[in-house]
Amino acid sequence: MNNALYNQIRIFQSIAREGNISAAARKLEITPPSVSNALRLLEEHIGHPLFVRTTRRIELTETGQQLLEQTAAAVETLEKSLEIIRDQNQEPSGAVRITLSRFAYLLILKPAMAAFCQQYPGIQLEISVYDGTVNIIEERFDLGIRFGDILEGGVVARPLMKPFVKGYTPPLPILPNMACPRCLPISIITG
């Protein structure tokens, strides 16, 4: 079915529902001559009149009633399907499978999860926390977060953050016999 024929059927259905050409034109937000022209083209295509027209009324013919009954469900199903697809384009939805190390989960994902889930309620996160290597493609993950250069072939990597190294220590007491920092005892632990 071409686009013009589909539009003609939609216009025909609107005329049948609204009861006249002017009301159908208002409902469809097009001009009454456009509605009349579409109906004429559809009747020519089918080879039968679809309405009996008088100066005050318009009524379905037997052929028109058959066409209305046979196309109503199909057009409604098609329009609902298109609406569902349009809605999917407006708000992201579906499942996203993520694999990441325990450290990446605690440092990157966990702090951002509440805000992400609130902003994208249609997305279901499936999270796998595992410190070993994972074949992202075979395991069918959408995303993997790892530290370092652990990559299999065919995987594209993007940096999420710059590497950082910081030293941490508990507060050191100042003892009277340690007047200068050079006097601090230092132990080096090797593994």
UniProtKB/TrEMBL annotation:
InterPro entries: LysR-type_TF_proteobact-type, LysR_HTH_N, LysR_subst-bd, WH-like_DNA-bd_sf, WH_DNA-bd_sf. SUPFAM superfamilies: Periplasmic binding protein-like II, Winged helix' DNA-binding domain. Residues 1-61 form the HTH lysR-type domain. The keyword Transcription applies. Keywords: DNA-binding, Transcription, Transcription regulation. GO terms for molecular function: DNA binding; DNA-binding transcription factor activity. It holds the Pfam family HTH_1. PROSITE patterns: HTH_LYSR (PS50931). Belongs to the LysR transcriptional regulatory family. This is LysR family transcriptional regulator. It comes from Klebsiella pneumoniae.
